[in-house]
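REVIEWER CHECKLIST
Item 1: Sequence provided? yes
Item 2: Single chain? yes
Item 3: Sequence as submitted:
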Amino acid sequence: MSVSIGEVIAVEGISITIKMFEDSNKDVLFFAGEKYKGISIREHLLIQRGFIDIVCIVEGEFLDENKTEYEGNRLIYTRKIKVRPIGYYKDNSFNEGVKFLPMIKDLASLISEDKIAAIYNKNSKNSLSIGKMLKEELPVYLPWKKLFNTHIGIFGNTGSGKSNTLTKLYTSLFSEKLLSIKNKSHFILLDFNGEYTSEQLLQTTDKEVIHLNTKDAKDRFPLREDEFWESETLSLLFQATINTQRPFLRRIIDGRNKYAANADSLAVYTKAIFRDVFSSAAQKPDCLELLRTISRIIKNDLLSEKLKNISWYSQGSKFTLLAGSTVVYFNAGGTEYDANLKADVDQLSVNVDHFDELLLRANIRLCNDLLHGYVQFDHIQPLLKRIESNLTGLKKVLCVVTEDQVRKVLTVISLRKCSSEVKKILPLLVAKHYYNQHKNNVQNPPDKTLHLIIDEAHNILSEQSTRESESWKDYRLELFEEIIKEGRKFGMFLTISSQRPADISPTIVSQIHNFFIHRLVNDRDLHLIDNTISTLDRLSRELIPTLPKGACVVTGTSFPLPMVVVVDLLDRSKQPDSEDVDLETLWN
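Item 4: Structure as written out by the authors:
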């Protein structure tokens, strides 16, 4: 049984024109005990083509003059609508896609709410409920089997509700599937603004929160020793240039691996560089300043005081030692070193952590390379300055461990109280740490999954950043582009949330499978969405700039058709800490 409301009068490609019957302009109708929505923009209807019901969506309506009919002295207008087919019902089952088209004189009828729900909510028993459709107000269920094994993008302007959507999505998943997820999947959330550190997403029994702070060390992100002492990691941390500084770091690591990496070996290495600097025939004045730095790193005050009185005599190409009023010259290969420094150097000891060890080895290696003519001081010295300045902050947010720690289901890494420099570097290190670890340990096909969630992703995935060199920006983007292009094969999936999708690398956006698009008004953002998402129809795209708060267009490979969904608002205790300030309450 059906409620006929018009007939087909034109078919042009997939654009269909329907002439409406009189009295068909109703908001809601009830027929045979079922509720039907009236015809308006974005509503659905059926066109009967034999035993097939073609499902169409209304794209526009207009009035057409009927010059052959008059009512008194008034011209009669005929109401017509433009519709587009989106699928068809066959044997009471909905199939998406355009396979059948109507013919002229085929009847159009209203579609019941039950049939609309069946279009968008197939297999709702195995799906997650996140909200209701904006127009029809029917509950929306997302297929978790098809959604969480894909890359997800959540976009929207500030205050549009994207943080609530991200939270609702994963809160629903953990609520329904936590027991199945344990020991099978690990979720990492990079939280730039500290919005998910309380009761959001999961209870504390299954959730680990790492509060990173570059001013007052509280928690630290654990990094394995073999990962820290890796040229790629150190290059990442200290933005080493490709041609000179990265080979220098590799020589540091090769030297550490070649000889025993312990305090005794490091002490012997340190003593040797003092002897070589003051006895080498190829004297380098820059080495003296490096020795002062080495003495400071190992906290040897006696050597530091003596080195203060030693200077470089450029005319004679010698070192001079001011002892009272007497000047002693250090000749190359002479005995002055034995008389003035050897005893103190022989007694030195080295007891440093991994960070100071890196700085110590870098200064010793530079001394050695300068004496042998391997490098130019001006090429390597900027790297040493970056290492020294960055280590101050990194010591407070990183710790080097010998083995991996036991992980909970969800790890939230809060970067709210980190410096801008650490906010730029650390997410790359975290992503690289988890990606390489997962890729090396997972089976084929993957027996475990890893899900990296990045809130405010434009902070680290932007192509517009001017705070860094081009080579460093390329390295940063290449890492995440590799993850999003190759990670799916290893069971690693990325979820990114951002208020400026146009700032994010187009390569990354183009690899996203499913989108939750809240209100966007910037032309660049809309242009990117329009040219990237093949599953977005024209009507849904035109709605994006005018979407109300909390509403989003859901589209992608996991959904047969785009949907406009109002995401349910979570309980206050589970909402992200991103709500607007209530000025009335604050100022009163």
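Item 5: Key structural point noted by reviewer: The chain is about 35% helix and 30% strand.
Item 6: Recommendation: ____
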